[in-house]
Design a protein that fits this description.
The protein is an alpha/beta fold and about 190 residues long. Helices cover about 25% and strands about 20% of the residues. It has a five-stranded mixed β-sheet with strand order 3-5-6-8-7, covered by helices on one side. It has a two-stranded parallel sheet with strand order 1-9. A two-stranded antiparallel ribbon has the order 2-4. The chain is globular and about 40 Å long. The mean pLDDT is about 95. InterPro entries: A_A_dipeptidase, Zn_M74/Hedgehog-like. This is D-alanyl-D-alanine dipeptidase.
Length: about 190
């Protein structure tokens, strides 16, 4: 697995500049690890993914919504912590293979309404269960509509989704990017 030690490929995502809300879940203890994972929390993405995020935020705004970011770049050390907490490759990337978050090419998001409330997506972020899958059919029509809205925004911006997580979007060629060791986000 190709790894490089650099910050030069990452851009810090600024709420005002991108028109998004950032709530890095792993900077709190309310996550799958059950503890604070990010000691220094900054939202960052690969320089190739950041323009797509900007486009997605513009698309969301044009429809009357705001993107809320739960996670972006994730240090490999954090990925090892998550794998220890939930060693299930359906939901957590095996750190020996590398997470697309650790490449800076993946972002976890939802949509906020005009009052700043999260749209109902049927499950919470990081709910590692069948109901979080994009193709899970046993959901109310409003939840399916909300998920399709998010999916449409992110696909139109150039990202792709993954089957198991309604919140996860990444560059289509993420696997071709190297793992990045960065001091922008510390564990």
């Amino acid at each position: 697995m190709d790894t490089r030690v650099t910050d030069q490929d990452l851009l810090v995502i600024d709420e005002a500049q991108y028109g998004v809300v950032i709530d890095l879940v792993y900077a709190s203890s309310n996550n799958i690890a059950g503890r604070i994972v990010y000691q220094t929390a900054r939202c960052a993405l690969h320089k190739d993914a950041a323009p797509l995020l900007h486009r997605a935020a513009e698309l969301a705004r044009s429809a009357g919504y705001t993107l809320k970011i739960f996670d972006g770049y994730r240090p490999p050390a954090a990925q090892r912590i998550f794998w220890s907490a939930l060693p299930d490759a359906q939901y957590v990337a095996d750190p020996s293979q590398g997470s697309h978050h650790s490449r800076g090419t993946a972002v976890d998001v939802t949509l906020l309404d005009e009052n700043g409330g999260e749209l109902d997506m049927g499950t919470g972020f990081d709910a590692m269960e069948d109901a979080s899958h994009h193709d899970y059919a046993d959901l109310p029509a409003l939840v399916q509509k909300n998920r399709l809205l998010l999916l449409g925004i992110m696909l139109h911006a150039g990202f792709r989704g993954i089957k198991s997580e309604w919140w996860h979007y990444e560059l289509p060629n993420s696997v071709s990017y190297p793992i990045i060791e960065s001091t922008l986000v510390t564990v």
